[in-house]
Design goal:
There is one protein chain. By secondary structure, the protein is α/β, with parallel strands linked by helices. Helix content is 47%, strand content 9%. The protein is built from 19 helices and 9 strands. The strands form 2 sheets. A 7-stranded mixed β-sheet has the order 3-4-9-8-5-6-7, with helices on both faces. Strand 8, helix 13 and strand 9 form a beta-alpha-beta unit. Helix 2 packs parallel to helix 4 and helix 14 packs antiparallel against helix 18. The chain starts with 25 loop residues before the first strand and ends in an 11-residue tail after the last helix.
Length: 412
């Protein structure tokens, strides 16, 4: 599971067809390209994908059920779209539990800030609702799509796990696995059930596969689908096939789960619910794609304080004007300024963020001052992450990745 997205599917379930490309934006599980420095047009994407916007009513339900303000990712529209979130909240109101599932496609040893986004919200959801979590490392996917050796993909998965653990997930409620090492048993039985009920024409339509696609790619979507079924993990859920699943992910991953939601009722399982995030912009602008192979396109979790400062000052696309006089008169454009976009992700103080927006838009704050605000926040965030990662040992990784019972009461 990676977080990226040229493919459109008409309708949510059943009649997904390849269209997958607007005149402007490309969004599929492997490619994301916006036509504007403002980024992807998410209103159009919701229409194309047939999902629902996260609105004030949903946010009010989050606050009522958790007793706290929704995470700032939710309040600011960073997680902006959903499928069946109201059904999950209905279950919580009825005193029932669900489980969380998210993942990472390991293509580099060092994760960047964009990779953190789904994990940060997932941790908040785990803490707020006290539920178990499944994290899938799709090292098999990376081998099938990337020019990497199988052993290399597996090794990268275990390096990425250390960064994921450093987010702070509760070990007693979290199971992490590598596809390469885990696949088998009940998990594989569910893969076979999905594979038998999805045709080649369907995956061609959903994912754009053709006659030159290797057969591994064609069968892979079933592997990403089955962690959303509780019966895939009998050591956690026993024989229960009906524990609901909520998947936080970037919206480029939605095609996998539209397929899953289509096939689930036909094999006796519940449709997973989803909550979708926007895309984290590259330093060069929201129309650019971040790349793990381009160290200057993002801030990596291994970057030093000095590297963070240099990257922001040199590469962060500015919405400021060309001259000081013009900027003071007309102000900066927050809709295209990458430093401001990053602050929306990582500055938790709503009032301070709004103050910065007003000052920068009016010309009172200069680009250099805006970047200085961001540098300070990112240096602190990454330094704290690096300290937590230092104490994640190989034994810690083994504990999280050992199949075992989690602290979860099976509902009657």
């Amino acid at each position: 599971m990676e977080n990226n997205s040229e493919k459109q599917i008409n309708g949510e379930e059943g009649t997904e067809q390849q269209e997958q490309k607007t005149a402007e934006d490309i969004v599929d599980p492997w490619n994301v390209q916006a036509s504007s420095n403002k980024g992807i047009d998410y209103d159009k994407l919701i229409d194309r994908f047939g999902s629902s916007r996260i609105d004030d009513t949903l946010l009010e339900r989050f606050e009522k059920l958790t007793g706290q303000k929704p995470h700032h990712f939710l309040r600011r529209g960073i997680f902006f779209s959903h499928r069946d979130m109201h059904r999950i909240l209905n279950l919580i109101e009825a005193g029932k539990k669900f489980f969380l599932y998210t993942g990472r496609g390991p293509s580099s040893e060092a994760m960047h800030l964009g990779h953190l986004i789904p994990f940060l919200l997932t941790k908040w959801l785990q803490d707020a609702f006290d539920v178990p979590l499944i994290i899938q490392l799709t090292d098999d996917e990376k081998y099938l799509w990337k020019d990497l050796k199988l052993e290399q993909c597996n090794k990268l998965a275990y390096e990425n796990v250390k960064d994921i653990i450093a987010v702070g997930f509760d070990m007693n409620k979290t199971f992490i696995f590598s596809d390469i090492d885990f696949l088998g048993g009940e998990f594989y039985k569910n893969i076979l059930r999905v594979q038998k009920h999805v045709t080649f024409n369907q995956v061609k339509g959903i994912f754009g596969f053709d006659e030159s696609s290797n057969i591994g790619k064609i069968m892979f979507p079933a592997i990403q689908a089955v962690p959303s079924f509780s019966s895939s993990f009998p050591f956690i859920f026993g024989e229960k096939k009906d524990i609901p699943c909520l998947i936080p992910c970037a919206i480029d991953q939605d095609p996998y789960f539209r397929m899953t939601r289509d096939v689930a009722p036909r094999i006796g399982f519940q449709k997973p619910a989803l909550i979708h995030s926007t895309f984290f912009p590259a330093l060069q602008g929201a129309s650019s794609k971040m790349s793990s192979s381009d160290e200057n396109s993002s801030i990596f979790l291994t970057d030093t304080a000095n590297q963070i400062k240099k990257k922001i000052n040199k590469y962060a696309f500015s919405g400021g004007k060309d001259t000081l006089e013009e900027h003071r008169e007309l102000g900066g454009d927050c809709e295209i300024d990458v430093s401001y976009m990053y602050l929306k992700f990582f500055m938790e103080d709503d009032s301070r963020l709004e103050e910065i927006r007003q000052q920068y838009s009016s010309g009172k704050m200069l680009t250099g001052e805006l970047k200085a605000e961001l540098i300070k926040i990112l240096q602190k965030l990454i330094a704290e992450h690096q300290e937590r990662r230092k104490v994640v040992t190989d034994d810690t990784v083994k504990q999280y990745m050992t199949p075992r019972a989690l602290n979860f009461t099976i509902q009657k």
